[in-house]
Design goal:
- By secondary structure, the chain is mainly alpha-helical.
- The chain has one domain.
- Helices cover about 55% and strands about 0% of the residues.
- It is built from 4 helices and no strands.
- The longest helix has 17 residues.
- The mean pLDDT is about 80.
Length: about 90
C-alpha cells in the first residue's frame, strides 16, 4: 500500500518501489519516470511473472536451471576476493 505499512505491520512489499516512483515524479518529468511506474505496477500485480509461469516452456529444463543455480552458489562460496587481502 502507498501508506508504507504492510498488512501485518512493518514495511509493505512494494512500498520501496512506490517511494522511488514518487521521488522520481517530484524530481523529474513524468515521461522519465515510466520505468519506475512499470516496476511498481509489476510489484503490485505480478503480470510478467504470471505470463512466464503460464508459458509452455516454464517447466521445461527445470533440472538444468537447478544445476546452474547450484553451480553458481558453489562458485560464490568458493570465491576468494583478491582486493583488500592482507599478504
Amino acid at each position: 500500500m502507498s501508506s508504507g505499512i504492510g498488512a501485518w505491520g512493518g514495511s509493505g512489499t512494494c512500498y520501496p518501489i512506490f517511494s522511488d516512483f514518487c521521488t522520481c515524479i517530484f524530481d523529474k518529468p513524468l515521461e522519465l519516470c515510466e520505468p519506475y511506474r512499470k516496476d511498481y505496477l509489476e510489484c503490485l500485480h505480478n503480470v510478467k511473472e504470471y505470463k512466464s509461469q503460464s508459458s509452455e516452456n516454464y517447466h521445461k529444463g527445470g533440472e538444468e536451471r537447478i544445476n546452474k543455480v547450484r553451480e553458481a552458489i558453489k562458485r560464490a562460496q568458493e570465491y576468494d576476493p583478491k582486493k583488500g587481502k592482507s599478504e
